[in-house]
Amino acid sequence: MINMKLLLIYNPFSGKGKNKKVNELIKLLENKFEITEFVSNGIGSITDYLKNDNNIYDIITICGGDGTINEAISSISEFNYSPKIAVVPLGTMNDFSHYLGMSKNIKKTVNYIINMKTISHDIYKANDKIFVYGFALGMLTNISYKKFKFKKIFGRLSYYLVAIKEIFKAKKIKLEADIDNKKIDMKSNLVLISSTNRVAGYKIKKGNDLVVAIFKGGRFLLPFKLYWYLITGHTKYKYDVNNLVINTDGSSFNTDGEYNKEVNKIKIEKYKTFDFITK
Questions:
Q1: Where are the alpha helices (DSSP H) in 78-188?
Q2: Which of 174, 198, 218, 268 has a CA-to-CA distance to 17 between 20 and 30 Å?
Q3: How confident is the model at residue 205 (pLDDT cuts 50, 70, 90)?
Q4: In the chain, domain spans
Q5: What is the fold, at CATH topology level, of the domain defined by 129-272?
Q6: Residue 59 half-sphere exposure, CB side, CA atoms within 13 Å?
Q7: CATH number of 5-116
Q8: What is the tens place of the pLDDT at every residue in 88-131?
Protein backbone atom coordinates (compact mmCIF):
# COMPACT_ATOMS: atom_id res chain seq x y z
CA MET A 1 0.00 0.00 0.00
CA ILE A 2 3.02 2.27 0.42
CA ASN A 3 3.00 2.84 -3.34
CA MET A 4 -0.49 4.31 -3.26
CA LYS A 5 -0.57 8.07 -3.68
CA LEU A 6 -2.54 10.28 -1.31
CA LEU A 7 -3.05 14.02 -1.69
CA LEU A 8 -3.80 15.75 1.60
CA ILE A 9 -5.53 19.13 1.32
CA TYR A 10 -5.56 21.15 4.51
CA ASN A 11 -7.31 24.41 5.34
CA PRO A 12 -5.61 25.99 8.39
CA PHE A 13 -8.48 28.49 8.74
CA SER A 14 -11.26 25.92 9.24
CA GLY A 15 -12.98 25.56 12.60
CA LYS A 16 -10.55 26.40 15.38
CA GLY A 17 -7.38 25.81 13.37
CA LYS A 18 -6.61 22.28 14.56
CA ASN A 19 -3.04 22.05 13.24
CA LYS A 20 -2.08 19.36 15.75
CA LYS A 21 -4.72 17.01 14.38
CA VAL A 22 -3.44 17.44 10.83
CA ASN A 23 0.12 16.75 11.98
CA GLU A 24 -1.09 13.62 13.74
CA LEU A 25 -2.99 12.56 10.63
CA ILE A 26 0.10 12.91 8.44
CA LYS A 27 2.29 11.03 10.89
CA LEU A 28 -0.11 8.07 11.01
CA LEU A 29 -0.64 7.96 7.24
CA GLU A 30 2.92 8.42 6.01
CA ASN A 31 3.86 4.79 6.60
CA LYS A 32 0.94 3.63 4.47
CA PHE A 33 0.84 6.14 1.60
CA GLU A 34 3.05 8.34 -0.50
CA ILE A 35 1.71 11.70 0.70
CA THR A 36 1.61 15.02 -1.11
CA GLU A 37 0.50 17.96 1.04
CA PHE A 38 -1.24 21.15 -0.02
CA VAL A 39 -2.07 23.90 2.47
CA SER A 40 -4.81 26.29 1.35
CA ASN A 41 -3.94 29.98 1.72
CA GLY A 42 -7.38 31.35 0.89
CA ILE A 43 -10.44 31.00 -1.33
CA GLY A 44 -9.47 29.81 -4.81
CA SER A 45 -6.06 28.43 -3.85
CA ILE A 46 -7.27 24.81 -3.83
CA THR A 47 -8.84 25.31 -7.26
CA ASP A 48 -5.63 26.79 -8.66
CA TYR A 49 -3.51 23.99 -7.24
CA LEU A 50 -5.67 21.12 -8.48
CA LYS A 51 -6.06 22.71 -11.90
CA ASN A 52 -2.29 22.63 -12.40
CA ASP A 53 -1.49 19.36 -10.61
CA ASN A 54 -0.81 16.61 -13.15
CA ASN A 55 -0.38 13.81 -10.62
CA ILE A 56 -2.86 10.96 -10.36
CA TYR A 57 -3.88 10.08 -6.79
CA ASP A 58 -5.53 6.99 -5.36
CA ILE A 59 -7.04 9.00 -2.50
CA ILE A 60 -7.59 12.70 -1.96
CA THR A 61 -8.06 13.60 1.70
CA ILE A 62 -9.71 16.93 2.47
CA CYS A 63 -9.17 18.40 5.95
CA GLY A 64 -11.48 21.30 6.73
CA GLY A 65 -15.07 22.47 6.82
CA ASP A 66 -17.85 22.35 4.27
CA GLY A 67 -16.48 25.30 2.26
CA THR A 68 -13.11 23.61 1.84
CA ILE A 69 -14.83 20.38 0.83
CA ASN A 70 -16.97 22.21 -1.73
CA GLU A 71 -14.01 23.93 -3.39
CA ALA A 72 -11.92 20.76 -3.50
CA ILE A 73 -14.65 18.52 -4.90
CA SER A 74 -15.69 21.17 -7.44
CA SER A 75 -12.13 20.95 -8.78
CA ILE A 76 -11.91 17.15 -8.52
CA SER A 77 -15.09 16.89 -10.59
CA GLU A 78 -13.09 18.30 -13.53
CA PHE A 79 -10.56 15.43 -13.41
CA ASN A 80 -10.57 12.76 -16.11
CA TYR A 81 -10.30 10.11 -13.39
CA SER A 82 -12.12 9.49 -10.10
CA PRO A 83 -10.00 9.14 -6.95
CA LYS A 84 -11.47 7.96 -3.69
CA ILE A 85 -12.21 10.93 -1.44
CA ALA A 86 -11.75 11.10 2.33
CA VAL A 87 -13.11 13.98 4.42
CA VAL A 88 -11.63 14.85 7.80
CA PRO A 89 -13.98 17.02 9.94
CA LEU A 90 -12.07 20.12 11.04
CA GLY A 91 -14.75 22.77 10.41
CA THR A 92 -17.52 24.15 12.62
CA MET A 93 -20.61 22.18 11.54
CA ASN A 94 -19.02 19.32 9.52
CA ASP A 95 -22.38 18.20 8.16
CA PHE A 96 -21.01 16.24 5.23
CA SER A 97 -18.25 14.44 7.13
CA HIS A 98 -20.75 13.43 9.83
CA TYR A 99 -23.03 12.06 7.12
CA LEU A 100 -20.12 9.92 5.92
CA GLY A 101 -19.53 8.71 9.48
CA MET A 102 -16.05 10.22 9.71
CA SER A 103 -14.72 10.90 13.17
CA LYS A 104 -12.95 13.84 14.83
CA ASN A 105 -10.82 11.18 16.47
CA ILE A 106 -7.81 11.11 14.14
CA LYS A 107 -6.84 7.50 14.88
CA LYS A 108 -10.32 6.33 13.89
CA THR A 109 -10.26 8.47 10.76
CA VAL A 110 -6.88 7.03 9.74
CA ASN A 111 -8.23 3.50 10.13
CA TYR A 112 -11.17 4.38 7.88
CA ILE A 113 -8.81 5.75 5.23
CA ILE A 114 -6.52 2.70 5.40
CA ASN A 115 -9.47 0.29 5.16
CA MET A 116 -10.76 2.26 2.14
CA LYS A 117 -14.38 1.25 2.59
CA THR A 118 -16.46 3.62 0.43
CA ILE A 119 -20.01 4.70 -0.32
CA SER A 120 -21.17 6.28 -3.57
CA HIS A 121 -22.59 9.77 -3.28
CA ASP A 122 -24.08 12.01 -5.98
CA ILE A 123 -23.09 15.65 -6.22
CA TYR A 124 -25.36 18.21 -7.87
CA LYS A 125 -25.16 21.46 -9.77
CA ALA A 126 -27.21 24.60 -9.10
CA ASN A 127 -26.71 26.37 -12.43
CA ASP A 128 -22.90 26.20 -12.72
CA LYS A 129 -22.21 25.85 -8.99
CA ILE A 130 -21.60 22.44 -7.48
CA PHE A 131 -23.03 21.43 -4.14
CA VAL A 132 -21.89 18.30 -2.38
CA TYR A 133 -24.73 18.03 0.11
CA GLY A 134 -26.83 21.19 0.55
CA PHE A 135 -28.49 24.17 -1.11
CA ALA A 136 -30.39 27.02 0.55
CA LEU A 137 -32.34 30.03 -0.67
CA GLY A 138 -33.95 32.77 1.41
CA MET A 139 -33.97 33.72 5.09
CA LEU A 140 -30.93 32.87 7.24
CA THR A 141 -28.96 31.40 4.32
CA ASN A 142 -26.21 34.03 4.55
CA ILE A 143 -25.19 33.00 8.07
CA SER A 144 -22.71 30.33 7.00
CA TYR A 145 -20.55 32.81 5.07
CA LYS A 146 -21.24 35.91 7.14
CA LYS A 147 -18.17 37.20 9.01
CA PHE A 148 -18.70 37.67 12.72
CA LYS A 149 -16.65 37.80 15.89
CA PHE A 150 -16.11 34.95 18.32
CA LYS A 151 -16.82 32.18 15.76
CA LYS A 152 -13.65 30.34 16.75
CA ILE A 153 -14.57 30.65 20.42
CA PHE A 154 -18.26 29.71 20.39
CA GLY A 155 -18.32 27.49 17.28
CA ARG A 156 -21.83 26.31 16.40
CA LEU A 157 -23.48 28.53 19.04
CA SER A 158 -22.25 31.64 17.20
CA TYR A 159 -24.37 30.69 14.17
CA TYR A 160 -27.52 30.54 16.28
CA LEU A 161 -26.82 33.91 17.91
CA VAL A 162 -26.37 35.61 14.55
CA ALA A 163 -29.52 33.88 13.22
CA ILE A 164 -31.65 35.70 15.81
CA LYS A 165 -30.38 39.05 14.52
CA GLU A 166 -30.86 38.09 10.86
CA ILE A 167 -34.54 37.21 11.34
CA PHE A 168 -35.39 40.90 11.77
CA LYS A 169 -33.83 41.76 8.38
CA ALA A 170 -35.27 38.93 6.32
CA LYS A 171 -37.64 39.38 3.36
CA LYS A 172 -39.89 36.87 1.65
CA ILE A 173 -39.00 35.69 -1.83
CA LYS A 174 -41.38 35.05 -4.72
CA LEU A 175 -40.93 31.40 -5.58
CA GLU A 176 -42.01 29.44 -8.64
CA ALA A 177 -40.74 25.89 -8.87
CA ASP A 178 -41.07 22.99 -11.26
CA ILE A 179 -40.46 19.95 -9.07
CA ASP A 180 -40.53 16.79 -11.19
CA ASN A 181 -43.26 18.42 -13.33
CA LYS A 182 -45.25 19.58 -10.29
CA LYS A 183 -45.79 23.36 -10.34
CA ILE A 184 -45.43 25.42 -7.16
CA ASP A 185 -46.12 29.15 -6.89
CA MET A 186 -45.89 30.88 -3.52
CA LYS A 187 -44.08 33.42 -1.39
CA SER A 188 -41.52 31.67 0.74
CA ASN A 189 -39.17 32.50 3.58
CA LEU A 190 -36.72 29.69 2.99
CA VAL A 191 -35.93 26.77 0.68
CA LEU A 192 -33.63 23.98 1.85
CA ILE A 193 -32.40 21.21 -0.44
CA SER A 194 -30.28 18.33 0.82
CA SER A 195 -28.77 15.18 -0.64
CA THR A 196 -27.76 13.84 2.79
CA ASN A 197 -29.36 13.31 6.18
CA ARG A 198 -27.50 16.26 7.75
CA VAL A 199 -28.62 19.91 7.72
CA ALA A 200 -27.27 22.78 9.88
CA GLY A 201 -25.75 20.40 12.38
CA TYR A 202 -28.86 18.20 12.71
CA LYS A 203 -29.63 14.71 11.49
CA ILE A 204 -32.90 14.58 9.57
CA LYS A 205 -35.00 11.90 7.92
CA LYS A 206 -34.85 11.89 4.14
CA GLY A 207 -35.75 9.86 1.08
CA ASN A 208 -33.50 8.37 -1.59
CA ASP A 209 -33.04 11.45 -3.75
CA LEU A 210 -32.82 15.17 -3.14
CA VAL A 211 -35.14 16.44 -0.45
CA VAL A 212 -36.70 19.88 -0.96
CA ALA A 213 -38.24 21.63 2.06
CA ILE A 214 -40.08 24.93 1.52
CA PHE A 215 -41.00 27.16 4.46
CA LYS A 216 -43.55 29.99 4.42
CA GLY A 217 -45.34 32.16 6.94
CA GLY A 218 -44.37 34.92 9.36
CA ARG A 219 -40.68 35.56 9.92
CA PHE A 220 -40.97 35.04 13.67
CA LEU A 221 -42.68 31.69 13.17
CA LEU A 222 -39.99 30.45 10.79
CA PRO A 223 -37.37 29.52 13.44
CA PHE A 224 -39.89 27.23 15.12
CA LYS A 225 -40.90 25.63 11.79
CA LEU A 226 -37.25 25.21 10.85
CA TYR A 227 -36.30 23.74 14.21
CA TRP A 228 -39.24 21.32 14.04
CA TYR A 229 -38.03 20.20 10.61
CA LEU A 230 -34.47 19.76 11.80
CA ILE A 231 -35.41 17.58 14.77
CA THR A 232 -38.26 15.60 13.16
CA GLY A 233 -37.71 15.78 9.40
CA HIS A 234 -41.32 16.93 8.92
CA THR A 235 -42.69 20.07 7.30
CA LYS A 236 -45.76 20.83 5.19
CA TYR A 237 -44.03 21.44 1.87
CA LYS A 238 -41.51 18.65 1.47
CA TYR A 239 -40.68 16.75 -1.71
CA ASP A 240 -38.33 13.97 -2.82
CA VAL A 241 -37.06 14.92 -6.29
CA ASN A 242 -34.46 14.13 -8.93
CA ASN A 243 -34.20 17.50 -10.67
CA LEU A 244 -35.92 20.86 -10.31
CA VAL A 245 -36.06 24.40 -11.63
CA ILE A 246 -36.63 27.41 -9.34
CA ASN A 247 -37.66 30.87 -10.53
CA THR A 248 -37.39 33.81 -8.13
CA ASP A 249 -37.60 37.59 -8.21
CA GLY A 250 -33.80 37.73 -7.95
CA SER A 251 -32.20 36.04 -4.95
CA SER A 252 -28.75 34.94 -3.89
CA PHE A 253 -28.35 31.32 -2.92
CA ASN A 254 -26.10 29.14 -0.82
CA THR A 255 -24.29 25.97 -1.92
CA ASP A 256 -22.64 24.01 0.92
CA GLY A 257 -22.47 27.25 2.89
CA GLU A 258 -20.90 29.29 0.08
CA TYR A 259 -22.41 32.50 -1.32
CA ASN A 260 -23.68 32.74 -4.90
CA LYS A 261 -24.87 36.01 -6.45
CA GLU A 262 -28.49 36.93 -7.19
CA VAL A 263 -30.18 35.16 -10.10
CA ASN A 264 -33.74 34.78 -11.37
CA LYS A 265 -33.57 31.14 -12.39
CA ILE A 266 -31.84 28.19 -10.72
CA LYS A 267 -31.68 24.79 -12.38
CA ILE A 268 -30.68 21.92 -10.10
CA GLU A 269 -29.58 18.58 -11.51
CA LYS A 270 -27.40 15.60 -10.72
CA TYR A 271 -23.83 16.09 -11.92
CA LYS A 272 -21.43 13.31 -10.92
CA THR A 273 -20.97 10.40 -8.51
CA PHE A 274 -17.92 9.88 -6.30
CA ASP A 275 -16.73 7.15 -3.92
CA PHE A 276 -16.22 8.62 -0.44
CA ILE A 277 -14.34 6.92 2.39
CA THR A 278 -16.68 5.90 5.21
CA LYS A 279 -16.35 4.06 8.50
A1: 95-100, 106-115, 151-154, 156-167
A2: 198
A3: low
A4: 5-116, 129-272
A5: Tumour Suppressor Smad4 (2.60.200)
A6: 28
A7: 3.40.50.10330
A8: 988 767 888 889 999 889 999 999 999 999 999 999 999 999 99
